[in-house]
Structure formats: C-alpha cells, structure tokens
Design goal:
single chain, about 110 residues, alpha+beta, four-stranded antiparallel beta sheet, three-stranded antiparallel beta sheet, 9 strands
C-alpha cells in the first residue's frame, strides 16, 4: 500500500490491506485452491489447509502468475510463481505436514537447478 515503494520487481502488481468487514490480520488455518499447477504442490491436495498470518494481500498485474487463491472476504491470491520465483502468503513452516511437503518440494526444485 506504499505507492512510493517499488518492491523487488520480480512480479508486477499491487499490495493492499484487507477490507470489507473481515478481521485483520487474517490469522489461522485456511484452504488453498490450486489454480495453476506448480512443482511445489506435488502431493498436496487442492483445498489443503495452510496457516496464515497477514493483513495485506497481493494483486498481481501479470496474467498466469497466480498459483493459488484463498477465500477470505472474497478470493485473494495466496501464492505466485514465475520462472524460478515462488512466493506465498501462508506460512509453510507453521503448516504442519502439508507445509513440510511444500518445503520438501521446494528444496527438491533447488537441487535440480
């Protein structure tokens, strides 16, 4: 939400605080909908629950970079990927077995490059 901050420039878009009567921060377990296949989600079911703690959500300006969405006062982008960049709003390290699976998949990807 800081218009004078450009960010890292990997993926174009904006970041905005949650609005619309939802509790902020969004904290707790919530499901993801996988909207674009990516190797970090190998062995992870659509609808799997991850742990979230955040007050802002990203809104990518680029087509095809959103890999998951999550419902919280409406759908929001909960992860993105492009090339060798992957980023998520949820906390894999706090997400028990499913989070460990995602981290393991990510490590395997880095070993291949």
């Amino acid at each position: 939400e800081a218009p004078d901050v450009e960010g890292m420039g990997f993926i174009r878009g904006t970041v905005a605080r949650f609005k619309g009567g939802v509790k902020v921060p969004h904290m707790g377990w919530n499901g993801i909908e996988i909207v674009k296949d990516h190797p970090v989600f190998k062995g992870i079911e659509n609808g799997a629950n991850f742990y979230f703690v955040h007050s802002f959500c990203c809104k990518p300006a680029e087509e095809g970079v959103t890999t998951t969405t999550t419902q919280y006062g409406g759908d929001f982008c909960s992860s993105v990927a492009r090339g060798r960049v992957f980023a998520c709003q949820f906390h894999p390290e706090k997400s028990q077995k499913v989070g460990l699976r995602l981290l393991r998949n990510f490590i395997h990807l880095t070993e291949k490059t």
